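Researcher: Checking consistency across runs. Here is Glucose-6-phosphate 1-dehydrogenase again:
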Amino acid sequence: MVSRVIPVDPFDLVIFGGTGDLARRKILPGLFRRYCAGQMPEEARIVGAARSALSSEDYRALVAESVREVSGGRACEDGTLDGFLARLDYVRIDARGSDGWEDLAALMRPEMVRAFYFSVGPGLFGDLAERIHLHGMASELARIVVEKPFGHDLASARELNATLAAHFDEGQIYRIDHYLGKETVQNLMAIRFGNMLFEPLWNSQYVDHIQITVAETVGVGGRGEYYDTAGAMRDMVQNHLMQLLCLIAMEPPAKFDPDAVRDEKLKVIRALDPVEPHHIVRGQYLAQDGEHPGYREAVNDPRSRTESYIALKTHVSNWRWAGTPFYLRTGKRLVARSSVINVMFKDAPHSIFGQEAGRHANVLSIRLQPNEGITLQVTIKEPGPGGMRLVDVPLDMTFAEALGPDGEDPPDAYERLIMDVIRGNQTLFMRGDEVEAAWAWTDPIIAGWQSRGEVPKPYDSGSTGPGDADLLMKRDHRAWRGIKP
Ligand code: NAP
C-alpha cells in the first residue's frame, strides 16, 4: 500500500537547541525524511539556533553528519541531502541574552507559517517565549512546540502554562508527547472508532483488565542527573502511559477534531481514582556483570530513593470502566524493549467444551515498539484428530508487513508531529488542562511514598522488574503478559 504524501504549506521552522541531542537524532533526520518524501515545499526553511559559535555552513556540516549517521547513508546518495541542507540556516542565540534575536527576526518571512521548536531544557521555555514575543515574531501564524518535561508537579506546570499563555494563545502551543505520533497509537483510535467489532465490547462487561507496559533495556545513561530528580513516575507515567490510558479508555469523541478528542481524554484523567499505597511497586535496577552500573551508581547517589521502575493499579471511575482495573508498568534495564497495551477480555461465560479444554480468553495486543502492530489472540481448535482441544493463536497485523510501501518504514513519530504543527492540527498534542490534570493525579501519589519514606525495591538488570510487581497481579488472580521484544 503506497502512502499518500500531501505537501504542507511553506514554513519557517526555528529549532532552538538545534545542535542538541534531540535535534540531531530525531528532529532533523525526521525533517530530512519528510523532505525525501516530497512533503516539504521548495520554500520551506529550517533555522537552527543555539549558543555555539557556528556559521550556517558549519551547521549544515553538523546536520549532514547527523542525518548520515541516523539514516545509515541510505537516503543520501543522489544529492537529496544537499537539497535538504540548502534549506538550513543557523543563528547564534542565547535564550537568556539579547544577541542574535534581531538576526533571527530578520530571517522570518511574513505571511508564512512559523514554528518555534523548543528543543532545550525546560528552564528556558519562558525566556524563549518572551523573546519571540518581544522581537515581534509571535504573529498569528506563529506556533511553539514544547518538549517534555512539562513541569515537575502541578504547581510548576501551572506556572509554565501561565508563562506561555502570556505570549501565545493555547491554539498556538503544541506540547509534544512523541508517543501520540506513533502509527499504532493513532491506529488505536482507528480500530476503536472505525470498526463496529470492538466498541460494543470495550467496557467492564467484557474487558477483564488492561495492561500498559513500557519497558526499556537501557539505563539512565547520560541523563542520570535529570532522571534522579524525576523518576519513572514523572518521566514516563505522568505523560506517555497516561496518554495511552486516555486513548484506550476515552469515550468516542463526536468528531476527530483537536478539542473534541482532548475533551474526552481530559474526562478520563479526571475520572482516575487515587492510587492506594499497596497498589504501587517501585524499583531500582542493580548492576549487571560488573559491566553496567546499577541505578544508584549511575546517578552518583548511593542513597537515592528515585524509582527506575514503577508498576501500579488504578481505576477509571465511570460507567464504562467501573470494576475494570488498569495496570501500568514501566522501567529501565528490563529484559526487552517493548511498549505494548494488552486489552484482556473476560473468559467466555460458559465453556461447552468442558474443563479439560482449559480457560481461554481473547487478548488484543497493541504494540507500539518495536515492530508496531496489532495482534488479536483468538481461541481455535487445535488441528488434528483426538478430540476437541483448544489452542490460542494470534491474528497478527504487523504494520511494516501490512502497510509499508514497498518495505519502507512508516514515518517516525517526530516527523508526523512536526508536519502536524505546520498544518496547525493539535489533535495529537496535549492541551494545558490535560497536563495539569495529569499532575493533579500524580502529585499525591508521589507525596504519599515520600511521606512514608519508602525505598524502591532492587531488581536485577535484564529481569521483568521487582518480584512485588508480580504479587500485585497475583493478589488479583492475574498475571502480567511477558515482556517480549
Ligand atoms: P541537549 O543535547 O543538552 O541539547 C540542548 C540544546 O540547547 C543544545 O543545542 C544547546 O546548545 C542548547 N542550549 C542550551 N542552553 C541554551 C541557551 N541558553 N540558549 C540557547 N540554546 C541553548 O538536550 P536534548 O537531549 O537535545 O534535549 C532538549 C529538550 O528535549 C529537553 O527539554 C529534553 O528534556 C527534551 N527531550 C529530549 C529527548 C532526547 O531523546 N534527547 C527526548 C525527549 C525530550 P548550546 O550549548 O550550543 O547553546
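Researcher: Does this match what you'd expect to see?
Model: One thing to look at in this run: The CA atoms of residues 161 and 432 lie 6 Å apart.
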